[in-house]
Each structure stands twice: as structure tokens, then as C-alpha cells.
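Q: I'm writing up a methods section and want to include an example of the input and output format. Could you take the sequence below and give the corresponding predicted C-alpha cells, formatted cleanly so I can copy it straight into the document?
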Amino acid sequence: MPRTPRTFTVSDSIVVAASPEAVYGQVSRPALTGRWSPENLGATVHGTGGADRETYVGMVFDGHNKRGPARWSTRCTVTAADAGERFAFRVHAIGLRTPRLRGPIA
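A: Here is the clean output for your methods example:
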């Protein structure tokens, strides 16, 4: 009998004393994620405009991560960029310095 792939969803929520627009302005800038994430060190945004470009669906970036002595990079693509409402991305490759191993990472 063929196995059906499993889909995992991870989510969490907190109450923040800031406007949705202000929060979106922080979480939707991958290059700045290292400022508030305990695991992420920031990101390199692909394409023209780099880190200062407004986030858009289809934007690709490489996230730089660490946990203890372990370090790795992930290739991500933005899947939702609704200012003040929703920011989401798909992680689809992983590697030590360059994300080369493709697959449904997160």
C-alpha cells in the first residue's frame, strides 16, 4: 500500500502591543530576522534591490541559522505578503553554507 505524504503545520501566537503594520514591517524583512529570532542570523535576499526591497510573493532568500555549534542555510520562497495581515514562506532546500539539498524542509 503506497504511503501518503504527511503534511506538518507549525504555528504559534502571542499578544504584541504594536499595530499589525508595525509587526508586519519587522517579520516580513528576512534580512532583519536575526534581530529577534533565537535561531536565525538573518538572510540574503536574491535578486535586485536586495534586503531593502519590499517583500513580495515569489521573493527568494537564503536564511542563515544556528543552534548551539550547528550552523546551516535554508533556501526560502515567500508564499504570502499581505501587508499588515500575513507573511509566510516555504523552506525548500537546506545545506551547510549553500542550500543544495532540496525537499519539503518546512
